[in-house]
Amino acid sequence: MSDMEYYSLKMRASQQVGEGEQKHEQHISGAERIVGRDSVEAVCSAMVKRAMTHSKGDPDFINVKIEKVHESDIQILKALPVTRVDVDTWQEGLEKAFGLIGDAAAGVREKLPELLRETFPMRGAMLYDIATGNRLEPDHERGVRATYMDALHSSEVDGCKNHFNEAIVLATKVANAPGMVAEFCVSDDPNYVTGYVASKELGYVRIMKMKEMGDENGGRIFLFDSRKASAEECIEYLQKKKVLVDVGA
Ligand code: WAQ
Ligand code: MG
Predict the structure, then answer these.
(1) Are residues 61 and 18 in the same domain?
(2) Nearest by Cα to 212 from 193, 229, 226
(3) Rounded to the nearest whole angstrom, what is the distance from the C-alpha of residue 220 to the centroid of ligand 1?
(4) 28 and 102 inside one domain
(5) What is the mean pLDDT of the chain?
(6) Same domain, residue pair 208 and 240
(7) Is residue 26 located within the same domain as residue 144?
(8) Does the beta carbon of 175 lie inside 6 Å of ligand 1?
(9) Which domain range does residue 138 map to?
(10) How many domains does the chain contain in total?
């Protein structure tokens, strides 16, 4: 790691939809990486390619942001250990996930189905305080987004999304945030039915079916305990801290 110069790259692409008053930008695709100086150009063009060939549509607007990151500001984390739970039905998978979260955070089990529904329209995650039952996102519509993270030594410039690889990186960062108790995740991709629950204690538990094939509803809930840390320091970590996750590959 010595003498490495790192850069953060972030891409987001959108398309104008609607007419007149209804006209607005619709999100098509986004990606982020933290890579060594030598990979910046290749990763940048792979990101642009991803945006230009996305199945959600042809972008009218692509924003690529490239920022130098100081090596001393990067935290290296070991990936959460992964286990896998096979289930026959998505209902069984969802119950299993609710049960694991319920064990990690006493008293929230009954609230989870409703909280999950509330996340469906959000672009980020719900930050739910298990001590008070309050939602702590500054903007409830958007939610909080974990950002500035990547897999360590991942010099690959692949243009397409790998759900698991992206999720293990995000889940590892989130599990290490101050005051974090557990995370619950269901993809909003209609063809991707595998979800997970994660925490430092549970590790990353993949649950192979958590929703019906074709269902475009998904979301994330970050279960936080305000007795352990302040919401501000947790959000600051999720949104600002640079993290590389050692996935051992
Ligand atoms: N920070 C916070 N919330 C996010 C972020 C982020 N960086 N990215 C997405 N979300 C929220 C947002 O509300 C989405 O609707 C929801 O999470 C799901 O995001 O082991 O693909 O990117 O194979 O659709 C799990 C992989 C894949 C399971 C999850 O999530 C496995 C996935 P998606
Ligand atoms: Mg998605």
Answers:
(1) yes
(2) 193
(3) 6
(4) no
(5) 94
(6) yes
(7) no
(8) no
(9) 76-246
(10) 2
Strand partners, 216: none
Same domain, 179 and 91: yes
Q: Which two tokens stand for residue 185?
A: 């995740």
Q: Which ligand is nearest to the CA of 119?
A: 1
The first and second tokens of residue 94, run together, are: 């969802």
> At which of 26, 41, 74 does a domain end?
74
Cβ-based neighbours of 136, under 8 Å, separated by 6 or more: 127, 128, 129, 224, 226, 231, 235
Q: Which of 188, 191, 197 has most ligand 1 atoms within 8 Å of CB, for mutation? A: 188
Q: Where are the beta strands (DSSP E) in 99-215?
A: 126-129, 149-151, 180-186, 195-199, 203-207
Same domain, yes or no, for 50 and 164?
no
What's the whole-model pTM score?
0.93
In which residue are the tokens 């919401």 written?
231
| 171 CA → ligand 1 middle, Å | 10
Q: Does residue 51 sit in the same domain as residue 116?
A: no
Q: How far apart are CA 121 and CA 137, in angstroms?
A: 14
Q: Is 164 in the pocket of ligand 1 (CB under 6 A)?
A: yes
Nearest of 24, 13, 83 to residue 48 by alpha carbon: 13
Closest residue by CA, ligand 1 atom 10: 124
Residues 23-70 have pLDDT tens digits of: 988 888 889 999 999 999 999 999 999 999 887 789 999 999 999 999
Residue ranges in the chain whose pLDDT is less than 50: 1
Check if 188 has its Cβ closer than 6 Å to any atom of ligand 1.
Answer: yes
Domain boundary among the residues 54, 74, 94 is at: 74
Is the domain of 50 the same as that of 82? no
